[in-house]
Predict the structure.
Amino acid sequence: MRISAWMIAAALLCPVLAVHAQDNSPYKVDFTIRDTGDAGGKTGRKYSLLVNHNQKTVFKVGNRVPVVSGGTGGVGGNAQFTYIDVGLNIDCVLAEAGSKFAMHADLDISTAVMPDKSPNAANAPTISQIKLSLDTTVAPGKPTVVASFDDPVTSRKFDVDVAITKM
């Protein structure tokens, strides 16, 4: 059997060609958060991210709330502040798992409730927070409920759907 130089080159380049042939298209990941106790909760709030295979994508929407963390306040004071992110934060990583997607997502949903203006009230806001850390498998193109929970503070119930679409 005679092996030529081009056969050796083809054998050596084959793994490299397979890597380049892999589709690196991003995926659109839609998170829909529904307050099922709300009359308008049927549609929910939708947040969309473009996620590359095996790369972390971070999505943040909301406000930064200042909280006094040191010093003294008042006129001419030297108060020091720490800023707290409130709103919705999503960290998401996708990996193909056969015909489905393995997904890791961290969701942080928070709000700041400012204190009442009475003289004896504390100055710092109260932070209401829900944190989810999800490791799940999702079929593409089909919205899937990945979390459902009751808010421990109110009587509201929430559902989190995820839909993944190849771009």
